[in-house]
Design a protein that fits this description.
Elements lengths: L9 H24 L5 H23 L10 H21 L5 H8 L2 H8 L11 H17 L1 H4 L7 H23 L7 H22 L10 H28 L2 H6 L3 H14 L5 H17 L14
Length: about 300
């Protein structure tokens, strides 16, 4: 069985920061492409491309995706949760602002921290780590506080979908850690998720009446290419590898960096102003992550999946 570490080392930290940085940039890419390529159709192209890349990767590396190893039930569950999360996000954006959706979506680490220790005791957070989680979330709320006050009563559906998306994200992590997928390769775990989503997304695009096609500008294809190669393939594969080797409660706290990286990308790429709120939010999230990943004096035994 692959050794599971009970703390984050520099390699894991660097990979997490890189993933969150790109996911923050990816929000800008989606936002600037959605006027040309409808959201669910955009997701369909991304996921289909990621499935093809992952299949080629596995062929080259000799990773077997279709052997009978008992992961099918857990894999289908994870795939369904992952696909449903994407639908909630894309549909939710039609009813609420991106800032409100972001805050509700990033309740996912709390779902992981609350539920996962019931199945994997070694994932339990201590008091100071819960404080760190709360501080990091408060930082995200602070970053978007200005725009949160300006909302339409009709946004209730979008907010509910965003909160549901956060719940589904947390449950996806829980399912990966507590089913046979905990011992599966990162490639196979990712395959279940993107393959199911690649099947669901076109049907949702059709149901929403989106205009579908392939005649888009060079920028649109560049954006979709980055979202596919780095976003849906490389970064998600890295995330699956991290979930297999490191504590899920610890790595989940790093996802609070993603919305702040999106704001930073807006400053750098779109010329949006740097505000005191952004600086305070970055400081709060950094402090929160440090507290969550603070190592105790007594080593925690490696987690054994149930």
């Amino acid at each position: 069985m692959t050794e599971r570490k009970n703390h984050l080392d520099p390699r894991a930290t660097a990979l997490l920061v890189a993933c969150c940085a790109f996911w923050g940039l990816q929000q800008i890419l989606i936002k600037t492409t959605v006027t040309e390529v409808p959201p669910m159709w955009q997701a369909s192209i991304r996921m289909a491309g990621a499935v093809a890349l992952l299949w080629l990767w596995c062929r080259v590396r000799g990773v077997r995706l279709f052997e009978r190893d008992g992961t099918l039930p857990g894999g289908l569950l994870v795939g369904a949760l992952f696909a449903a999360e994407f639908v909630c996000i894309y549909v939710g954006l039609q009813h609420t602002s991106a800032s409100r959706l972001t805050v509700f979506l990033y309740t996912a680490p709390f779902v992981v921290a609350l539920l996962l220790p019931r199945f994997v005791p070694a994932e339990r957070l201590r008091g100071v780590q819960w404080l760190g989680l709360a501080i990091a979330f408060a930082g995200v709320v602070a970053a978007f506080s200005e725009s949160l006050g300006h909302h339409d009563p009709r946004q209730l559906l979008g907010d509910a979908l965003a909160l549901t998306g956060g719940l589904l994200w947390g449950l996806t992590t829980l399912a990966i850690r507590t089913t046979r997928l905990a011992t599966a390769s990162a490639e196979k775990t990712l395959f279940y998720q993107i393959a199911v989503t690649a099947l669901v997304s076109p049907m949702m695009s059709l149901a929403f009446g989106e205009t579908r096609g392939f005649s888009y500008s060079g920028y649109a294809w560049f954006s979709i290419g980055l979202q596919t190669v780095i976003g849906a393939f490389a970064s998600y594969l890295g995330w699956m590898w991290l979930l297999r080797h490191y504590p899920a409660t610890r790595i989940s706290s790093f996802t609070f960096l993603t919305p702040l990286f999106a704001l930073v990308a807006g400053v750098v790429l779109l010329g949006e102003p740097v505000t005191l709120q952004l600086v305070l939010a970055l400081s709060g999230v950094a402090l929160g992550i440090l507290l969550v990943n603070r190592r105790s004096g007594t080593p925690t035994p490696p987690a054994t999946p149930t």
